[in-house]
Amino acid sequence: MMTPAITALILDEQARQAGHFIEGIDLNAYLEKLGARAEWLTNTVADRCRGFVAFYCNDLVSRRAFITLVLVAPEDRASGLGRALVTGVLEICRQRGFTSCRLEVRQDNAAALGMYRALGFSTIEERGTTHVLELAL
After folding, report:
1. CATH value at residue 22
2. Which region holds residue 128: left if phi is over 0, alpha if psi is between -120 and 50, else beta?
């Protein structure tokens, strides 16, 4: 469930990155879609969201999951939390019988690319300024 703490974390990051965290789409419409359709794996301590992964694990035909958004609060970065959350999502997908997981990441996000590659994701497509990555589960 998308909580006010998650929304605040997303909006703070959008401001921190001067509107470039989520770009090319209507932010409010995207947040509404996430709230209505995405599943969430979060880490919250004392009502403070330290980080989350929003994902879709509902395509029963292709058995492919999709991670749509990963965010760790600035003060919790480089702690392994992002990796732990993504690993948790991958395990959920495996338990449900999904066979792969995809995501998109900006080419200039070296930290995220490094983490995803360390987890076994590989680039299957380049779209402008993003890589589409996939991992067989």
Report:
1. 3.40.630.30
2. left
Query: Alpha-carbon torsion 63, 38, 78, 114, what sign?
Result: positive
pLDDT digits (tens), the chain, 137 positions:
889 999 999 999 999 999 999 988 999 999 999 999 999 999 999 889 999 999 999 999 999 999 999 999 999 999 999 999 999 999 999 999 999 999 999 999 999 999 999 999 999 999 999 999 999 99
Q: Which two tokens stand for residue 14?
A: 């959008």
Q: Please report, as a single letter, which amino acid is at residue 37.
A: R
Query: Which pTM does this prediction carry?
Result: 0.94
What is the domain range of residue 102?
Answer: 4-136
Sheet holding 100-106, edge to edge: 39-45, 48-56, 64-72, 100-106, 130-136, 122-127
Nearest to 10 by CA among 56, 70, 68: 70
Closest CA to 21 of 59, 70, 83: 70
Q: Please tell me the total count of domains within the chain.
A: 1
